[in-house]
Amino acid sequence: MLGAIIGNGLYGNKYAFGFQNAKKSQDEPQDEEKQALIKKNYNEIYAHELAHKTAGGHLAGAIVIERNADGIPFAGHVAIKMPSLNPNNPQQTINDANTVIRSAMAPADPSGQDYKVAAQARNIKSEAQNMASKQRLNLLA
């Protein structure tokens, strides 16, 4: 199962969605302003998504940065492989869930979707911990 860790932009966007073109006589200053906005947004989004990817390790996919019709970056995401409950190896499930949680919460400014992904991984981790506890009890019995 894949989850998506979504960076700032898609939900509660703090980046510019559009760029209002001024009169043609002002194209040069507008182009400089637009390029500065593109660079600023791209750098902020990339840093956010790179934090996810770095912490996600082998479970994290590629960084994707979305742009609006004006070419302004406004959102990014990194797909992450959400662990599934493995009855044969609950500890591996716990380890993978911890990786997903770390990845989701890695940026300094986690988005709402980042919190949702972390919560989903915590639920899977809890199930795996319960399964591991039951298996240990069965070994003792």
Biggest sheet architecture: 3 strands, antiparallel
Structural class: alpha+beta
Low-confidence stretches: 8-13, 16-25
Taken in chain order, the helices and strands follow as EHEEHH
Distance between the termini: 35 Å
Structural commentary:
The protein is an alpha+beta fold. It has one domain. The chain contains three helices and three strands. It has a three-stranded antiparallel β-sheet with strand order 1-3-2. β2 and β3 form a beta hairpin. The longest helix has 30 residues. It is rod-shaped.
Could you provide a short overview of the structure?
The protein is an alpha+beta fold.
List keywords for this structure.
single chain, 141 residues, 3 strands
Would you spell out the secondary-structure blueprint of this structure?
Elements: E1 2-6, H1 27-56, E2 60-67, E3 73-81, H2 90-105, H3 112-140
